[in-house]
Amino acid sequence: MSEPVLGTSLAPGPAASAGFIWHDLECGSYTADLPLWRTLAAVRDSPILELGAGTGRVTLDLARRGHRVVALDRDPELLRELERRAEGLAVEVVVADARSFS
Known about the structure:
Number of strands: 3
Distance between the termini: 37 Å
Strand order of the largest sheet: 1-2-3
CATH superfamily of one domain: Vaccinia Virus protein VP39
Helix content: 25-40%
Number of helices: 4
Structural class: alpha/beta
CATH topology of one domain: Rossmann fold
CATH architecture of one domain: 3-Layer(aba) Sandwich
Radius of gyration: 14 Å
CATH class of one domain: Alpha Beta
Shape: globular
């Protein structure tokens, strides 16, 4: 059995649809940092850039509080799920690798 390659997205198909579920199980219930992000977001009235946004745990929390958020992630599957969850909110998604984003 080969080792998974880091930085690759799941191929479309039945396994791909489970990717965001795994991401949410791994990260979705963590909330201890949200007060920090809310405080930092309140400092300026400008768009917020979240790097590694995933399915939007932080992005959605801030957007629901009226902030405009640009959510960047290199995994298009996670961002598709974020877009679905962000319907009607001021969220822009960008598929890109943060290491080379400019």
